[in-house]
Amino acid sequence: MVKIKDRRFEPYIHESKVLERVSLLAKNIERDYRGKEPLLLAVLNGSFMFISDLAKSINIPIEVSFIKISSYQATRSSGEIKKLVGLDRVLKGRDVIIVEDIVDTGKSMAYILEMVQEQEPASVEIASLLLKPASLEQQIKIKYLGFEIPDAFVVGYGLDYDGLGRNLNHIYQLKS
Ligand SMILES: O=P(O)(O)OC[C@H]1O[C@H](OP(=O)(O)OP(=O)(O)O)[C@H](O)[C@@H]1O
Ligand code: HPA
Predict the structure, then answer these.
(1) Cα 108 to middle of ligand 1, angstroms
(2) Which residue numbers are catalytic?
(3) 46 CA: nearest ligand 2 atom
(4) What is the tens place of the pLDDT at every residue in 39-96?
(5) Of the ligands numbered here, which is closest to the C-alpha atom of 9?
(6) Does this entry carry the keyword Secreted (predicted)?
(7) Which residues contact ligand 2 via a Cβ below 6 A?
(8) 125-158, pLDDT tens digit by residue?
(9) Distance (Å) of CA 70 to CA 45, 86, 107, 112
(10) Mind spelling out the 3-state secondary structure of 118-133?
(11) 101 CB under 6 A from ligand 1?
(12) Is-above-0.90 flag for pTM?
């Protein structure tokens, strides 16, 4: 059990399970993009651990770049998405893989997809470590998915509660 500010979190997905799954996703990306040079577009802050482990396990040429958006305050989506760091690469004609730590309501991903599609990439797919199907408010197809999880707030492996908990190596779930 870990305590972050006013909340208690219990162990949920062990780091070894996360890493096993991430390396499988990397192998799938490798297989699907052989002969290409995909651009992995990671969404800060939450995806920093996932993109690091994912990128290290992909043994074909890839480019890695970052965008930064924010919508969550503590455990709730504010509904308002702020773009804090935008695209610094031309995406036209590129094979883009958007890399997220979690798709929850799907609002952030819908916003990012629109931003990416505007630039007319050759293809766009999504890699997300976590998905909360019960919270999803938009139709979003995730080709490279780590785990489907129930609708409970999680922290660790990049995910935060009010800015804290990102450095935890396992994933923890809010204790009800
Ligand atoms: O599907 P949604 O309900 O939109 O939630 C998912 C988004 O929320 C988190 O980001 P957050 O805004 O907390 O910023 P962070 O990555 O800096 O933690 C997460 O990294 C996703 O980007
Ligand atoms: O469950 C979550 N944990 C941390 N950040 C998040 N952003 C959306 N959902 C979550």
Answers:
(1) 7
(2) 104
(3) 5
(4) 999 999 999 999 999 999 999 999 999 999 888 777 777 778 887 777 877 899 999 9
(5) 2
(6) no
(7) 72, 102, 104, 153-155, 159-160
(8) 999 999 999 999 999 999 999 999 999 999 999 9
(9) 8, 12, 11, 11
(10) CCCCCEEEEEEEEECH
(11) yes
(12) yes
Pocket test for ligand 1, best of 44, 48, 72, 161 (most atoms within 8 A of CB): 72
CATH class of 2-70+81-174: alpha beta
Q: Could you tell me if the CB of 105 is within 6 A of ligand 1?
A: yes
| Minimum CA distance residue for ligand 1 atom 13 | 72
* Model ipTM value: 0.98
Amino acid (one-letter) located at 51: I
∠ CA 127-131-132 to the nearest 5 degrees?
165
Backbone angles phi and psi of 172, in degrees to 5: -120, 155
Tell how far the Cα of 36 is from the centroid of ligand 2, in angstroms.
32
80 HSE (CA, 13 A, CB side): 2
> What number is the average pLDDT over the span 35-40?
98
> 173: which DSSP letter?
E
Longest dimension (CA), the chain: 49
Atom of ligand 2 nearest to the CA of 160: 4
